[in-house]
Structures
1.
Amino acid sequence: MNLNAPDQISNYIGGSLRAPIHGKYFDNINPATGEVYSQTPDSDASDIEMAVGAAKAAFPNWSTTPAEERFKVLNRIAQLIDENLDALALAETNDNGKPLWLSKRVDIPRASSNFRFFATGLLHFSAESHSMEDRAVNYTIRQPIGVVGCISPWNLPLYLFSWKIAPALAAGNCVIAKPSEVTPMTGYLLSLICKEAGLPDGVLNIVHGNGPNCGSAIVKHPDIKAISFTGSTRAGRDIAATAAPMFKKISLELGGKNPNIIFADCDWDKMMRTTVQSSFSNQGQICLCGSRVLVEESVYEKFKEEFVARVKKLTVGDPLDEQSKQGAVVSKLHFDKVMNCIALAKEEGGKVLAGGNALQPEGRCAKGYFIEPTVVEGLGANCRTNMEEIFGPVVTLQSFKTEDEALQLANSSDYGLSATIWTQDISRANRMAMKVHSGIIWVNTWLLRDLRTPFGGFKNSGVGREGGWEAMRFFTEPKNVCVEL
Ligand code: NAD
């Protein structure tokens, strides 16, 4: 297959590559160089209408295709992603600014795992039966919903796009999917892979465009009966406001402001290594990054000294260079947002211990959007810096004296996506895990993912769960049949 990134991206509707109906495009920029390198369709409601027509036409066949056949085609997509790892990783890095080694080791392998996982999952998916002794038997059928919408963000482009599409297709739905307009390229390349894998026309339709014109047309369309969305809490709120009165099923995976809670008795070296990663991986642009580092007072100074020394050594630079630990942030808009957050942290009285500045590497990346990994201390729990999601290479340090104080700080956020707890005291780890208000808790590790587990957040971090059977249940309607004996 030839998976080179084209100058002009197309929509994938009804199995064909199509220009947007109104012929409008916007620039796609490589954030590491600041240069325009392709054009992205600026699709709108008319393109979504066409995609919904194609999906509705494909649904009767796809929803009744034997599980074994659906497994084969989804598994073939996974294989083709693996076979094209290098091309996909390069496209992801050029679109997003993340280091190429990261795209190769994490993003693209996870995209193929998502397809493989749900391809095999569909072979094992089953529903319940409830017997009423000798009176009656109930059995529950889980049927695909019909046409569903999947909308994803820019931070883990193909990884999160496929995390939604794979279970939706596995469950027998036809899909209208929109990748982020900021990182559309691997979504486009996935169209080519689906074609090559033999996915029937119209089963998956990938439409490119921005949130207000294209994303909201998906949410508003009366024939799209479920919306699976990952992105900001702001957009999630708008989506819920539109979809709820239409009684659509919604799954919302939103922002985070995750605590990383460090007790003095932890495995120090492992904690330190992992905390650098959990703070700054992907330039801090992972919803699961621990952006509030909470450290037990007795080891706070020791932690600060060692952590700051390690952070200062992180090399920021050309994402194509194997030596770069950190690449560019995703866009000029996001660069400005993060730099404003750093300025706000200073205004609020924060002391910058490391970073705090934009960075201009020499050579081809001189006009890229690079920010030094930044560590701030001296701010209280209730300031904006510690309440609002920054979603960039910026963490704050706070200290606590007792377990109760750690809990109070951890739970002081309106978000509740994930938390990390570092301690060798197994009882304390479990006590804390019970009481922290987050959907995902890691003890003595971070970002260790088992795709069978429920994934999602409390509070402003979202509604519903993805992963494993949770996703298969979301993408199906249960129907109970009661038979009197
Ligand atoms: P965003 O909300 O701006 O955009 C996400 C997607 O939604 C894009 O495809 C966008 O075009 C679309 N969109 C925007 N407004 C819309 C609307 N009104 N209707 C329909 N679609 C709309 O988010 P982003 O900036 O791309 O991503 C960063 C955010 O995503 C952060 O808040 C981050 O925490 C969150 N995120 C959450 C998770 C999770 O699993 N909880 C994972 C990754 C990222």
2.
Amino acid sequence: MFILPKLPYTFGALEPYIDALTMEIHHDKHHQAYIDNLNKALEGHADLQNKSLEYLLTNLGQLPESIRVAVRNNAGGDFNHTMFWPLMKKDGGGEPKGKVGQAIVKKFDHFDAFKEQFNVKAKSVFGSGWAWLCLDQKGDLLITSTANQDNPISMNLVPIMGLDVWEHAYYLKYQNRRPDYINAWWYVINWDQVEENYRKVN
Ligand code: MN3
């Protein structure tokens, strides 16, 4: 059985950039629903119930066809949100230091150039999805996006930072203004967590 991880801060911790009610519904309702639906999909599949989310998402082609779409969407939803919560913190923001900061400057020349490219990617997701900073198989940084709850690990990439641009992540406060939400998100990003994710693979 998969269970909902605790939010590592209070619902209101990211105010005024992300409002408390959005955080509460996003975590307690949306994330919980992915977990409930994943557990339901895996009922009767004892061999898959104790696999990790990473295993499920990197072996989608091997799953029984009858549950493949449900697992793709809901294991993806669980994995993405579990990764997303610690990527934010109260009094976050600023520019990354450490190894990932160096790697970003090396790849994109300047932090602002990186930020601009990431913003363009996040704004251009059509419908629901995510923007990501990933490492490719050579260890090079790469900005990409996915639709729905797909995760780059299913495409042989390693995500180290991700931004949820589903409307449920911002609609209460920002309505149709996704670019305003994206701009606000840079004030709560937790670079320490991005650094930790980067160091796990570098
Ligand atoms: Mn979400």
